Amino acid sequence: MTGSPALQPVDPRAVQQVLDGRWAHVRQDAREMLGTPEYAVVHGESMTEARARISALTAKLAATGQVGLAFPAAYGGSDDAGGSVAAIEMLALADLSLMVKAGVQWGLFGGAVQALGNQRQHDAYLPAILSFDLPGCFAMTETGHGSDVQQLRTTCTYDPATQTFDLHTPHAAARKDYIGNAAQDGRMAVVFAQLVTQGQGRGVHAFLVPIRDADGSPMPGVTIGDDGSKAGLLGVDNGRLSFDHVPVPRDMLLDRYGQVAADGTYSSSIENESRRFFTMLGTLVRGRVSVGGSASSAAKVALEIAVRYGDVRRQFAAPGEDREVVVNDYLVHQRKLLPALARTYALAFAQEELTSTMHDVLIAEEPDDAAQRELESRAAGLKAVQTWHATATVQLCREACGGAGYLAENRLPGLRADVDVFTTFEGDNTVLMQLVAKGLLTGYRDAFGSLDGWGRAQFVADQVRETVLERTAARGLIQRLVDAVPRRDEDTSMLDRGWQLRAFEDREQHLLDGAVKRLRKNAATKRDRPFDVFNDVQDHVLATAQAHVDRVVLEAFVAGIERTPDPAAKALLGRVCDLYALTTIEAEKGWFLQHGRLTPARAKTLTSVVNDLLRELRPHMRTLVDAFGTPEPWLNAALLTEEPARQAEMAAHDAALRRAGTEPQQAATATDLAVAPAQ
Amino acid sequence: MTGSPALQPVDPRAVQQVLDGRWAHVRQDAREMLGTPEYAVVHGESMTEARARISALTAKLAATGQVGLAFPAAYGGSDDAGGSVAAIEMLALADLSLMVKAGVQWGLFGGAVQALGNQRQHDAYLPAILSFDLPGCFAMTETGHGSDVQQLRTTCTYDPATQTFDLHTPHAAARKDYIGNAAQDGRMAVVFAQLVTQGQGRGVHAFLVPIRDADGSPMPGVTIGDDGSKAGLLGVDNGRLSFDHVPVPRDMLLDRYGQVAADGTYSSSIENESRRFFTMLGTLVRGRVSVGGSASSAAKVALEIAVRYGDVRRQFAAPGEDREVVVNDYLVHQRKLLPALARTYALAFAQEELTSTMHDVLIAEEPDDAAQRELESRAAGLKAVQTWHATATVQLCREACGGAGYLAENRLPGLRADVDVFTTFEGDNTVLMQLVAKGLLTGYRDAFGSLDGWGRAQFVADQVRETVLERTAARGLIQRLVDAVPRRDEDTSMLDRGWQLRAFEDREQHLLDGAVKRLRKNAATKRDRPFDVFNDVQDHVLATAQAHVDRVVLEAFVAGIERTPDPAAKALLGRVCDLYALTTIEAEKGWFLQHGRLTPARAKTLTSVVNDLLRELRPHMRTLVDAFGTPEPWLNAALLTEEPARQAEMAAHDAALRRAGTEPQQAATATDLAVAPAQ
Questions:
Q1: Which of A107, B13, B104, B267 has its C-alpha lying 20 to 30 A from A435's C-alpha?
Q2: Acyl-CoA oxidase C-alpha1 domain spans which residues (chains A, B) (predicted)?
Q3: Residue B471: pLDDT above 80?
Q4: Closest by Cβ to B148, choosing from A425, A589, A668
């Protein structure tokens, strides 16, 4: 229907191979070692039961070697940061509570000790961290400051007389909050606080602080609260920490980026306080990459459940036929599931590329500031886009499974509740998208400096073009594809990859140019209202960030297709990429029409091309979810086994009635619209 | 900024008065009688605890007289169907589990006995139903048939020898499922089953069937299952019912629309089986109206929590100032909350109008078929639109409250989980929107007949215009407003109400015309594929239904403003209506551009007019949520009391530091974008 050769049947394993990517061995290990019912979610647990089970499972997981990949080989790890992301994405397919618990222990807590601590601290703590003998917390967020972490109000003041820091929570808003491992298991915490020494604030630093003694009682001066029941993630013991002048020995400062001598003299290799802080944060980028990828795992599981259910579930008879229609055959059901599936594929390729870039940046001999800044921007954008996508996708899958989707036994409620907070933690998505926009506006140079008053708009404008046009993946191929499209593109097929790429690029470029122009104008006309200079274009700036991430994702998809060896799999992925590209353009149709990038006639064609793609991909829906390679025990949705059995039994019963000459209930048709009230 | 006089401060009570509407007395009674902490949600309960509490509270509620409004005065009710909807909307502000439990008992179960039963049955059962001494179920949906209830597979076969029916579940897919009151409390159930008598199927009928004895044990032949843990609504005991040849006495058929004589002779005043069934269902329309309105209650509570939090919560400093910025001052935060708030207002007026229409149709002396069909279509569309809106709104409010929004103590997780299934029960929203479309396509005539093969497309086309142009509210006023707009509207202000109304109307008309044309064409060209005739335009047809509901809602809003006595309140509501109208057009900008209804220049103006409206409405956000009149104890979100106290303490602490000459932490600015990793 799309003018190309019809798609051939595809072996899901050929697609899985491409999705598994550079860390295929890590993913396969996880399937083989952990792909059992023991690691599957348990439905309907109380918070107490869930916490106990997840704590025990986390300890067990520690022994598998699946969790320490990112740590140095000297401590039992594999020096494999990318592998650790792949491993946690696999855990997320099984259970998001387990994934978060592992992420807190080995990603945030262990990762902070590794990235911010010194050799002595590594020797002293990393082995017990890896083995989970020392469960720990990452205590950064405060009740009053989450997004703006530079403004944390907890203080840690050095006293040369005692050679200790005084860690203190000055008021309720400075309480550490939402801290995983705090309410139940944590023995130590990496606490972020404003370092004060010799009467001078030095900005936020991290301190290693015991919070419970060997009996599990809070240490003197430490008050531990429980965040209690949450929307989801019941197995994670989030809590609150307050410190009442708690003494912290000098050598418990994680001092890689800032040192305090015995006499209180402060030293650091990075002079600028803001820059120092963001350098410290930058070492923790792996957490954000893990969260984005794990959210996508939730989307994959939800789609597999909804697609498989929709392939057997029937409702309303086809006109003039005995059979009831399988719900995946309805156009509007395809309109829900298939674009979400296509976007999940696109994001999987983008996540793979991000993980790979992260790995290479982290193992590089020479630090590359520009690469680090770009990595952080990419991690922020993909975290936001993947977590929003996951929330929306799990929701649509819940609705696509009807009442069954609301029962805990069918997995979707738990997935929905667990993944919800992913849009908030590791950075509120809206704030992260602003971070992406800021990176674009400053051309990645000085990405974390202040843009106070936006006086630099002129500078910004000069930087823009080279930045945007920098390709992110498969540079040569993409340039060739784009170059091959004629400038007057009315006659170009919308399935032309170069046309799609250029549409995405064009949108990003135009939005960015517009944002810069408006900021420059505001900087001139709103000098007396500096807040409004930025705030008045905030929506425009965020749209720019979205367009940028969309383009990065499309380029990663194109590069992923290029790497696919199996021809049938490659053709299928090509069509999925078409659907991602064209539904993204369709969602922004207003912009493309408004800016003369689509004529009304082309916009109309777009709708029918998308619908043709849905029809073409319909027979491959099951293949596309099978290719995620999720171990069957992890799916753990009753309807996956029960609905096919029920449908078979009903069909046999209907057939028996027909043989006996008693018709089954006269079929209503799919165009009839009887609907039951609720119960 | 919008060229109109600036808005004056408004007393929320002046707005509340308009929102409270025709059943203000019912709403005020509920506030006074039930507006206590006892009726507020309890956070973090187990399912067992929630069920016990809600059952006890339901019994208590029975004694208040708030739940029987719809029943005849002879049985202790008030013959006030509209009032009963207002009452249940109030319960939904307090606790959605309680609302659903009450809805099952007095809406569905009691409502079915009332609407489908005879005088003797009323006398025998209604008193005990009203007092909750006889808790009951509405057993319609089966595991295998939810949307297509005409195809239920449970059978009820009459045997003249014993003068009993034989109620039977032939296979697992015919099991009654998701049935409220079934798992724990129900003593009887209204069971919908295929009636067979004298060897002939008579279609679905309702039977009153005891399911538990006085001790609470299942009756012989009745198997009761528990749906167990769900996403939300933990206080509602949903369960499953199967029947193994259960004998049902002849007089337990609810026989208002179909009677079986002792010898098995069937009689009915409605000959056509389908028509009879949908007439029966039509008497139950109150359930759908209640569900839509209750979902909107959830949206109101969520918005009040998010708006009040956003009015005190600060994050990032304003450039060049000491103060941190209140999050409601960010344009993008306004872009999230205010359009949702405007739409909530719009839907409130539409719901009020729907309830009023329903009430008048139900009390009419002479049944009016056309009015009944239109009511059912309106109820279906508003149920779908309100429940989707509620799910999306609670979600955005959750995200707008950040990590705090994820904690059970802050109410939003429970609201989110509870309201989720509202898009599914009382009819899957997508199926309901098809019902609306079908109503439009057939000009409300023969609305429930089959459109098999769509051979009637010609007939359809003839019906279209008069149907669409039928005004739904404030007919005269709206016609005058529309007529006053010049046909060439490039120069008309987008704040002109007539322009807005015409844009909505125009879109609906054009979509409907297009759908009819495409269906006619398909009927001719796809004769051999009757399923595809309809399925290929399903997306177009659903867009038509959406446009129709949007227009109905806007007209109701306009009529509501017209009824507002207080001039300041009227002006404010006018601006809120502008925002609803223009953000709806903005969301469909692609369509308006594609069809030449907006020029690119106008589309650009649209964005800035919307942003101006956000700035203009910003100071009134609090007024707009206060006007919902939700009793403070029902809000029950810890952050509403704790965050203002925390902010005050932090401000006092910062001020003390300044007085002492020690600056608080140097303020980062709102354009800086530090972001904490997750914990």
A1: A107
A2: 282-441
A3: no
A4: A668
Q: Is residue A611 part of a domain?
A: yes
Sort out which chain A residues have CB atoms less than 8 A from B231's CB and list them: 398, 406, 408, 412-413, 416-417
Q: In this model, does residue A388 exceed pLDDT 50?
A: yes
Q: CA–CA separation, A623 vs A617, rounded Å?
A: 10
User: pLDDT-based confidence at B323, cuts 50/70/90?
Assistant: confident
Provide, as residue numbers in chain B, all residues whose Cβ is less than 8 Å from the Cβ of A452: 319-320, 669, 671
Rounded Cα gap, residues A576 and B528, in angstroms: 30
Q: Are strands A200-210 and A188-197 parallel, antiparallel or unpaired?
A: antiparallel
Q: Does the structure show a pLDDT above 50 at B370? A: yes
> Which residue type does A479 have?
Q
Residue B534 clears pLDDT 50, i.e. is over it? yes
**Element (DSSP H or E) covering residue B155:** strand B155-159
Residue B428 covered by a domain: no
In terms of CA atoms, which chain A residue is nearest residue B227? A407
In terms of phi and psi (left: phi > 0; alpha: psi -120 to 50; beta: otherwise), the region of B44 is: left
In a domain, B109, yes or no: yes
Please report the residues numbered 142 through 201 in chain B whose beta carbons come closer than 8 angstroms to any beta carbon of chain A: 143-153, 170-174, 177-180, 182, 194, 201
Rounded distance between C-alpha atoms, residue B30 and residue A293, angstroms: 48
Alpha-carbon gap, residue A247 to A166, rounded angstroms: 5
CATH of the domain at A571: 1.20.140.10
Residue B295 tokens, joined: 């979902």
**Residues in CB range of B288: below 8 A, 6 or more apart:** A677, B379, B380, B383, B426, B427
Q: Nearest CA to B121 among B258, B255, B234? A: B255
Question: Which of helix, strand or coil describes residue B237?
Answer: coil
A361/A370 Cα distance (integer angstroms): 10
- Indicate the residue among A251, A276, A301 that finishes a domain: A276
A480 assigned to some structural domain: yes
pLDDT value at position B674?
39
**pTM summary value:** 0.95
**Residue A459 reports pLDDT greater than 90:** no
Q: Which pLDDT value is given to residue B502?
A: 95
For residue A452, pLDDT over 90 is answered with no
Backbone torsions φ then ψ of A241, nearest 5 degrees: -130, 130
Do A530 and A453 form a contact (C-beta atoms < 8 A)?
A: yes
Mean pLDDT on B536-565: 96
Strand, helix or coil at A629? coil
What spatial distance separates the first Cα and last Cα of chain B, rounded to whole Å? Answer: 43
Sign (positive/negative) of CA torsion B95, B99, B100, B104?
positive
Q: What is the 3-state secondary structure (H, E, C) of B171-227?
A: CHHHCEEEECCCCCCCCEEEEEEEEEECCEEEEEEEEEEECECCCCCECCCEEEEEC
Q: How do strand A155-159 and strand A188-197 relate by DSSP bridges? A: parallel
The helices-and-strands tally (H runs, E runs) of chain A is: 24, 13
CATH for A164: 2.40.110.10
Structural domain of residue A246, as residue ranges?
136-276
User: B474, B555 in Cβ contact below 8 A?
Assistant: yes
Model pLDDT for residues A519-566, shown as the tens digit of each residue: 888 888 988 888 998 899 999 999 999 999 999 999 999 999 999 999
Please name the residue that has the structure tokens 């359009």: B339
Per-residue tokens: A10: 């595809």
Q: Taking CB atoms and an 8 Å limit, are A403 and B434 in contact across chains?
A: no
The size of chain A, in residues, is: 679
Contact A577, A2 (CB under 8 A): no
Structural domain count of chain A: 2
Last residue of a domain, one of A622, A641, A661: A622
Query: Does A676 touch chain B if contact means CB atoms closer than 8 Å?
Result: yes
